[in-house]
């Protein structure tokens, strides 16, 4: 097959289509169906729907169910944060980067399929599949993102990147709706309960991800540096770049203060985004309302409002400045956490979800653009700066998820974990005020 030229429409579409393929993982597995499934599997209730136990035995030890999944999630992101610099170094120098992208894609998608057999009797295998799916998703993104300058010219990159995001949103929502219909109307499809179509949803995610990725793999170039081998110097290159940025931060007071603030408040933001569904499953009284429908509606609500939040935040930052806008957003996060402690019914949760969506899109978009503006204009290491940013975020998730699970384990309730996250936001605000003193943006 003829190699497509850089910048060709067909090549750009093929690259963006991988977002359509893999975005079903973060929506269906991370945010929607799996957390609901995990809660139903690990929470024992009486005939009236009252919780009796949420303890899970793993390797002979008893864990709060949410603490256990938090620890596994933290371990997954720890692995990602360790291997990301290695993968970045490889993607910069090795020729056959497509094979590396395929490896993580197939590992992630097959692990999603493996979740079909998730059960308390098969807990180790199930949690291993959960861990490998997460590593596969983020690992494949390292190589996927590194393709962008290879397949698109600078003036094309913003547009094709946005197209990928749009395709990912549309594709993931389509599959989520299909899964929701199967689960809610299971008897219409010949199932005796909702458990089987829920498990089938995991298979569908894996097949969707792997299947649609073939179009991307068919048209992407193998690589840009044919024939180079993976040597020790290549593997450690990513770590050397991170070390160089770390040294550069010592002389850049503004960027150092901002990155410290981002590292702290991002712990709380990312933890809430990952753990929100688990919180709703365990802590809310859904009454006669179907919790599955309610939770998925809230997740879709968050995504839709997040787009509006990102756009509105951009307008506010133009008028009032990035740092000042971020400070206001973090104060809103503090208010949301305080309100969430008292949330007990679906309506209150929907209100919380809408508020989270509004500030979630804003804080993510503005955090990244603020960091970009603070990078020295004469720097030729923008990729390395963003690699440092990415690793900082992942390590923050590790700490945030571990502390979230630890507090839930100590107190027996995720409500206290939510309150504890306010600590990170408060420290983040203080550090942002310090950044504002030396920053003009």
In percent terms, what proportion of residues is strand? under 5%
Order of helices and strands: HHEEEEHHHHHHHHHHHHH
What is the distance, rounded to the nearest whole angstrom, between the alpha carbons of the first and last residues? 49 Å
Strand line-up of the largest beta sheet: 1-2
Count of helical regions: 15
Number of strands: 4
Structural class: mainly alpha
The pLDDT mean sits at 82
Shape: globular
Instruction: Identify low-pLDDT runs.
Output: none
- Tell me roughly what share of residues is in helical segments: over 70%
Biggest β-sheet description: 2 strands, antiparallel
Compute the CA-based radius of gyration. 22 Å
Give an overview in words:
This protein has 441 residues and is mainly alpha-helical. It is 78% helix and 3% strand. The chain contains 15 helices and four strands. Strands 1-2 form a two-stranded antiparallel ribbon. Helix 2 (24-42) packs antiparallel against helix 8 (195-219) and helix 11 (291-320) packs parallel to helix 13 (346-374). The radius of gyration is 22 Å and the shape is globular. The mean pLDDT is 82.
Short description:
By secondary structure, the protein is mainly α. It has helices at 9-22, 24-42, 65-93, 97-114, 123-146, 148-151, 154-184, 195-219, 232-249, 253-283, 291-320, 322-340, 346-374, 382-411, 414-438; strands at residues 44-45, 51-53, 55-58, 61-64.
């Amino acid at each position: 097959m003829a190699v497509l030229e850089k910048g060709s429409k067909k090549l750009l579409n093929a690259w963006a289509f991988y977002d359509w393929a893999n975005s079903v993982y973060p929506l269906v597995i991370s945010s929607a169906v799996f957390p609901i499934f995990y809660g139903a599997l690990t929470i024992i209730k009486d005939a009236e729907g009252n919780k009796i136990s949420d303890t899970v035995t793993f390797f002979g030890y008893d864990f709060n169910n949410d603490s256990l999944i938090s620890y596994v999630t933290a371990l997954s992101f720890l692995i990602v944060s360790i291997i990301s610099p290695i993968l970045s170094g490889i993607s910069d120098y090795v020729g056959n980067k497509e094979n590396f992208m395929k490896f993580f894609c197939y590992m992630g998608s097959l692990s999603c399929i493996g979740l079909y057999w998730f059960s308390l009797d098969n807990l180790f295998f199930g949690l291993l599949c959960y861990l490998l799916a997460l590593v596969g998703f983020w690992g494949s993104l390292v190589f996927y993102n590194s393709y962008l300058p290879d397949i698109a010219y600078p003036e094309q990159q913003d547009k094709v990147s946005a197209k990928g995001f749009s395709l990912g949103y549309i594709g993931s929502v389509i599959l989520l709706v299909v899964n929701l219909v199967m689960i809610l109307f299971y008897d219409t499809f010949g199932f005796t309960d909702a458990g089987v179509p829920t498990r089938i949803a995991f298979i569908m995610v894996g097949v969707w991800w792997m299947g649609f990725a073939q179009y991307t793999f068919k048209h992407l170039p193998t690589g840009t540096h044919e024939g180079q081998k993976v040597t020790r110097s290549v593997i450690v290159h990513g770590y050397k770049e991170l070390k160089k940025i770390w040294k550069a931060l010592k002389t850049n007071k503004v960027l150092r203060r901002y990155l410290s603030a981002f590292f702290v408040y991002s712990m709380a933001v990312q933890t809430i985004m990952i753990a929100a569904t688990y919180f709703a499953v365990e802590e809310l009284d859904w009454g006669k309302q179907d919790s599955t429908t309610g939770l998925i509606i809230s997740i879709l609500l968050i995504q839709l409002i997040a787009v509006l939040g990102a756009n509105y935040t951009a307008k506010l930052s133009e008028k009032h400045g990035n740092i000042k806008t971020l400070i206001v957003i973090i104060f809103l996060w503090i208010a949301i956490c305080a309100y969430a402690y008292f949330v007990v019914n679906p309506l209150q949760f929907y209100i919380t979800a809408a508020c989270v969506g509004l500030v979630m899109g804003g804080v993510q978009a503005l955090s990244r653009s603020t960091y970009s503006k603070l990078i020295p204009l004469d720097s030729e290491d923008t990729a390395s700066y963003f690699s440092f940013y990415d690793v900082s975020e992942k390590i923050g998730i590790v700490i945030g998820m571990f502390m979230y699970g630890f507090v839930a384990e100590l107190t027996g309730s995720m409500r206290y974990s939510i309150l504890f996250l306010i600590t990170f936001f408060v420290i983040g605000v203080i550090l942002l005020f310090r950044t504002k003193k030396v920053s003009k943006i």
